[in-house]
Amino acid sequence: MMDIFFTTPPFPCFMCAGEDTYYFGDRHPARANLGAFDLLIVTKGALYINEDNRDMAASEGHALILKPNKAHYTYHSCDEETSFYWIHFQSLGVWSEQTASGYIYYPHSSYQELEPLSNDERLNMRSSMLRLPQFCKLVQPQKVYEMAEQLLELTSQPQSWVRWKQQTIFQSLILELHASAESEKDAASLRLAEKVAEYVRQNYRNSLSYAQIRETFSFHPTYISRCMKHAYGMNLTEYIIMYRIEQAALLLIKTDLAVSHIAEQVGFANLSYFARRFSKAKGVNPGKYRKQYSF
Asked: Does the keyword GTP-binding apply (predicted)?
């Protein structure tokens, strides 16, 4: 089952929640392009949902996330009484999904990249990737049920702080989903991926060879790439290129440096290769990208 990756901050944002019960023969409604993620948490019985030509049977103690830009339908009606919570949420940042041809990224229209506040790294926020399983068996289902119930109880309260409280509960809930997909082996690979990502962020201006990475972390680059893909949705080479492109984009906006100088400064030895990778990532070449933010 594929995972869904969210660039945070900002964290996915809670919208609304409810609960429902289906009986024998009932079917979950078919929808297309709902515009929000639909998290289904089954407490009794089973839901049978197809999305992207994949059948997913979510029974008691399971959670399923339906994507906002896809179509889904019931491939098998309920064969017993089925109860579940539903939670709609949205990503105000970038999210991605894995396909047969690679990873597809979906930036939200209001998303803005984080820009450094100063040269002091201690003052700057850094984004990271939150990985949620599209379908999983909950490690602590009762704990998740209780949080879903708290979201519902708050819905009827008009106080101004309710939305903030719901958001904090929702963040705890999605972290439980994240934990449900993790094993001890996963946790070790994630720790390695985070260390490698930090190393890339500190050394992206320099030449980063596989031999150098291997010597630094004492792991084969193939294994490191697998850990990076698990944690960030991209292998080691893709992560290095992505980070360099993001730093180049900031320099294009904030400075008047020549494109060739920027390419060299962020670690690209070949200007044409830099322009090609930048255009692929941003949809326009470096010059046009800079013009978009010029006054």
From this structure: no
At residue 7, the pLDDT reads: 78
pLDDT category at 184 given cuts 50, 70, 90 is very low
- The answer on 7 and 127 residing in a single domain is yes
What amino acid is encoded at 46 in this protein?
A
According to DSSP, the β-strands at 46-51 and 102-106 are unpaired
Mean pLDDT of 34-63: 94
For residue range 279-288, list pLDDT tens digits in order. 998 889 999 9
172 and 87, same domain (yes or no): yes
The phi and psi torsions of 183 (rounded to 5 degrees) equal -115, 175
Contact between 95 and 4 (Cβ < 8 Å): yes
Q: Which domain holds residue 234?
A: 185-293
